Amino acid sequence: MASTSFHGVSAAREYLLEGHPLTRIEALLLFGLPDLTKLISDLRSERFKIHRGTVPFAAAIVRLRGMAEVVPPRDLPIREIMLTEYRVSW
After folding, report:
1. pTM (2 decimals)?
2. pLDDT in tens, the chain (90 residues)
3. What DSSP assignment string belongs to the chain?
């Protein structure tokens, strides 16, 4: 069965193809996608160029707050924790 048959996977794929960056936590919270690696691998095998970078957890939370209510624990050092983000490049 192809990975694009799942609604969350196809929505995350479309989100990336629209040029939006995506981290694992965003993929999980916004699309219910537990395995972002599989999607990225599929896109690479389709010859899309994927850029990988790092962003602070705080930046991902700011992006998520526009679409979901996210409140990290008070003691969590969100500016020090770095997440990997993926972006499709044309």
Report:
1. 0.84
2. 444 444 799 999 999 999 999 999 999 999 999 999 999 999 999 999 999 999 999 999 999 998 889 999 999 999 999 999 999 987
3. --GGGSHHHHHHHHHHHTT--EEHHHHHHHH--S-HHHHHHHHHHTT-EEEEEEEEHHHHHHHHHTTS-----TT--TTT-EEEEEEEE-
